[in-house]
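Record format v2
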Amino acid sequence: MNEISTVYDCNILPLNKIHNRAGNITIVEGNDNIPFMAKRIYYLYDIPGGGRRGGHAHKGLYQLIVAASGSFDVLLDDGINKKIVTLNRPDYGLLVVPGIWRELFEFSSGSVCLVLASEKYDEADYIRKYNSFKTWKYKK
Ligand code: TYD
């Protein structure tokens, strides 16, 4: 997947939502609704106005990115194609497959970016320079 993946493999996945007057709940259980088992969960918050996050690719990691609160934009780039996805609903997640450069920006005030990841943190899985990403992706 990683070297041949494209931005078109990154889709918005609907999550479940149990709705009632006391509020809503969305549940991700095992890999019932997403194509990987989440081994790690983290969230970004208190992001300063105009802040940008991401700016890297992963060699093998799958992620589901959710706007748990507020909204933000995600730029996806496979080295050839780019697309920008706006996330603004806690019951939808953006699947980001391996081998995609991503940048997160336009965070609304107080927004929370929840990320489910298929593996534990591994700095060796990151590609943090765009030129290195292009070389890695199209080396063959
Ligand atoms: P990074 O993934 O570069 O942040 P972002 O994509 O949100 O801009 O991570 C920022 C810092 O946090 C970096 O020093 C690595 C560290 N970090 C961990 O130690 N464990 C993790 O699971 C994550 C996601 C980051």
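The longest strand covers residues 63-69.
Residues 130-137 form the longest helix (8 residues).
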